[in-house]
Amino acid sequence: MKASENSKVYVETVVMERTYRATPARVFAAWSDTEARKRWGRPSPDVIVVYDRADFRVGGVDDSRCGTPDDLRFRAVVRYMEITQDRRIIFAEHVSESGESRAASLITVDFEADGASTRLTLTLQISSIDGPEMLQGYRQGWEPSLDNLAAEF
Amino acid sequence: MTTQTLTRPHFGTFTIERAYKHSPERVFGAFENADAFYRWFISGEGWEIGSLTHDFRVGGHGRSEFRPEGHPEWFGNDTWYLEIARNHRIVTAYTMSAGGKPMSHSLSIIELYSDGKGGCRFVYTEQGAYYGDENDIRNRRAGCDELFDKLEIELRGHS
Question: Which CATH architecture has domain A10-152?
Answer without folding.
Answer: 2-Layer Sandwich (3.30)
